[in-house]
Design brief:
alpha+beta, N-terminal domain of TfIIb, three-stranded antiparallel sheet, two-stranded antiparallel sheet, binds zinc ion
Length: about 60
């Protein structure tokens, strides 16, 4: 499924910024360099979720658009 957005959206910019960071799990300390955040938007906010591949803990970050 491809997005109908023609250009770079605010989501994409935020996600690119998050994806550029290495992610260290708060639970087990596993550092995941290559993972991606899954974006879920509710209109006024966007939620980025990421699951630790080592222990399965889900991390959520919330941003306002
Ligand atoms: Zn973990």
């Amino acid at each position: 499924m491809s997005s109908s957005y023609g250009g770079t959206s605010a989501f994409d910019r935020l996600r690119a910024r998050l994806d550029g960071q290495s992610y260290a799990c708060e639970e087990c300390g596993f550092v995941d360099e290559g993972g991606t955040w899954e974006a879920v938007t509710t209109g006024a906010t966007v939620e980025y979720r990421r699951e630790c591949p080592s222990c399965g803990t889900e991390r959520v970050r919330l941003y306002r658009l």
